[in-house]
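Appendix B. One record, verbatim.
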Amino acid sequence: MAPHYNKVHLRFKLNGIHYSYEDLMEVAYSFVKEGLSYEQGIGNFLLDWLDDNDAIQVNTSGSTGQPKRIRIKKQAMVHSAIATGDFFKLKPGDRALHCLPPHYIAGKMMLIRAIILGLEIDLVEPTSQPVFSKRKHYDFAAMVPMQLQNSLKHCGNIKTIIVGGAPVSNGLKQDLQELNTAVYETYGMTETVTHIALKQLNKTIDQNADSLFQTLPNVGISQDNRGCLVIEASQLSDKPIVTNDMVKLHSETEFEWLGRYDNVINSGGIKLFPEQIESKLQNKIADRFFISSVPDETLGEKVVLVVETDSKALDKAVFSELTAYETPKHVYLCSQFVETESGKIQRQKTLEAVLED
């Protein structure tokens, strides 16, 4: 039986000190009143977690629409923490590093995993290059791709890292092959109480499996009539979660992510996934970019490339690996992309701004 959300594991430690349920409330108040900015965020979340309500309000990232606040049951967060612990075989007393912003679900869940599983968690400021002890061994950490890229030289003392929140570039994937740390890309969203599936990015024995996500325990997957992923996880949500992520199912527990349904381009009757085209271009364009489309009388939609740069030159050789349908018919230059508060690119708003200029 899963522990109740109002329990604190006897082996739980925060910055090296064990706190009971009551003690943790005092720590939360102290963080809010006297802590640094990120500690205040952690303190506010802990106060929400420790109150008498059975659910908390959480912000979605807004990467695929307007950010919103949704209600998540605390016991669902407990089940999510246990599923992650089971997948990675985390045990009481294991050490975890917390370097994510506490405002979104990923940062909150790192704390809940520690409280419920009995981990010894260290808090560090969630900067683009987290500063943590290079001599201390950690069993588990979570990062966004930029943090991981900037910390590669210092990750040797971390056993397992999960990475999410943004796409992992091909360049970073290549760099990870030289790392002894096991690194997993996550699939999930706020509505699924962080990730429900993972895929290892390095040390993959089966070379055909590196594009497949493996679901966590007690997660069922299927597709709707659009080919989008449907998630059934009764411990996390009372009803199936229908996503806008187009996937290819390989088994009852494995799937390949193809791209967002919202982003699919139908060009001359050919269905194109911008994310797959972007993957082919990642190592060839230094600036940030994305693939999108604009209406076309002949093709219906034509592929375009939007690059965040002030430069006027882009060598056509960068498109050498693309098919004729995938090759952008126009390149738009943009001085600054439109982003969400969490730093994710808002493609449609950026494209609209570029077309208006």
